[in-house]
Design brief:
The protein is globular and about 80 Å long. A hairpin with a 5-residue loop joins strand 2 and strand 3. Among the domains are: 86 residues, no CATH class; 244 residues, no CATH class; 49 residues, no CATH class. The protein is 8% helix and 40% strand. It has 7 helices and 45 strands.
Amino acid sequence: MEAPEGGGVTTASGDYYCEAGKTCEVDIPDGEAWAGTFIAQPQPGYVFDSWQSGGACGGQSEPCSISLLGEHTAYDIEARLIPMFRKAAGGKHAVTLNPLPTSVLIDDGLFDIREIDHIAVEDNYSTIKYFGLGDTDADGNPEVFVSGWTDGGSYIDTNGEERPANARLQVFEAGPDATELLDANELLGRSTTDGTAFIRVHDFDRNGHDDLLIIGHNESPFVPTENILFLNDGNQLTPRSIEPAMAMHEGSLADINGDGYTDIIGSAYMSSYDWSDDPAAPFSYGDAVMILINDQNGGFKAWPLRFNVSIEGSADFQKIGGQWIHTGSAVAAANLDDDPEAELVIVDAYDGSNGDVSTSSYGSSSIIIDNIRFDSSRAYGDIKPLPIPYFHKQDRFKDSQSKFLSSEFGTGRAHDIQVDLFDMDNDGDQDILVSSMLWNDDYKESAGVLQFLQNKGNGRFSDITDKALYNYNLGNQGGHDNLLMDVNGDGFIDILAVDASTRVAEPHEWTGWIGEIYRVPDQAWANEVLINTGNGKFVSTLWEGFAELDQRTESILKSYGPTYEPYFLGGQKYFPYLLADGRLGFITYGVANEREFYFDVRANSRLHTGPNATDPSRHGAAGYNEYYYLTENPDVVALVKKGEFENGLEHYLEIGKAEGRRAFAEGAVVR
């Protein structure tokens, strides 16, 4: 039995009890029959959610009954029983998968916080911000490009059509000592966009200089907006339009046709594409997966993908075996199997099994599009299923409420909002990472998860989420804008989840008047750093710490006195960057009395792989990885929880090294 913080486990008979934070064993003599019922006992302030998947009674929320016949031996049966508790004040899904000792946490005190700048704003709307990261001026300092789409503030144009308000386009440069807000007009010739949810920095024309790509998106109203590629010749960034205009919720970059140039793939809810010759015209919020093929000179040609067959010359695609391919909410591309071509992964999709294009049904499936082909104007490919969304798989979510169950948008409770393809277990093939959420305005009903689909070879996938995530709380909000990046220099790709948190209004006394302040409820945070152990496991190391960072940014505003009251801080996105010397930093923001403030949050030293991100070489253990060591040695986790060792490194130095236990994963960079 492993009893995490928040409660213990007892048996109905009272013969056994395991207190919170301890690991206990129940020894059954060889050859004897045994039966018992285990009951989870939450501590005050906590409630029992369910037994953790992968162990005895996994996924169940009732007392766990186990019975053994009298024919077993000591090596026949070993069962793990792990209760999952959540804080009563948090959401109903705020439970932690595979909890670990606090030695895996990154101390927020490692970060220094400074105000970058603040500007006057008179917006009557909010902006859902997104970012892109790169180095367009090749000076070694990362630039963070920020824009987004506007919620509210729309207007009627000269054609009588409703159009969204412009979103600010801002450029930050993170120098070695400080971060600056640059003049976007001077750098790009403009300081706004019509709306976007996808910003990327990449060398599209392969001239050795990074370009800036901004793909259109807006949801207030839902309309296609312009796509812009700023081509970089080494002296200036020159804008070029890419057609069609789109409302692209998410996408990715990949070389689809194998010509060595990077193409663009996106889930276009809407577009300005000419569908006049299409046998089944698109409906609202379900335009097409749009493949934009690079012409090798900074231009792109659009190839919409909507069916599994070529529809050229066909009046009825269903008569020729046609099946509809849903646009989904996110798409990515990579070579997932043994052939040399790229495949697409579409999440938040409808499986299209009945070929019906008359309704918009998001959230029911994840699919692969294999064997992608092109006719004169369209792309098409073969549909292959993937494991179902995480929130559909787990019984404990079966009664959960979601906007997708009660709106025009979908039929599934999950909202899968981003998909990334990378080798998460370092075995040489591409795995699938799906960022998913239970979308609900009530934080107590919402949840978020990173679903891990492991490539078992030749494009066969299995869901290993419950075995891959450690110290991970399901009460988060999911990530719309995640970034894959090695943050501690060990050679393995880590995950930085980026999103805004749910906020609730609380009464607050401002200077001379009573109003409200918006706070993020406990265990409803969204930004998160997950460290890759190098062995297919990812440890949440900075999550609650972002709430502490929020408090420190608030203290900067308080230092001005009542000048900028009332202010709106906390739970905003933290846009990550990595300095040339390896230090991790973030840019975040807040609104205060018609001003928008920007803050630089940067580590005062590199993050390392020792306990609490410290340098293990100071203890004579260069390369030692606390995350790897604890996730590979559950007995050590139990000893640390019992207080017999301060952390995994102490155990390794005193016992583990002599026992021949590995200190880090194969292939790790040791420094």
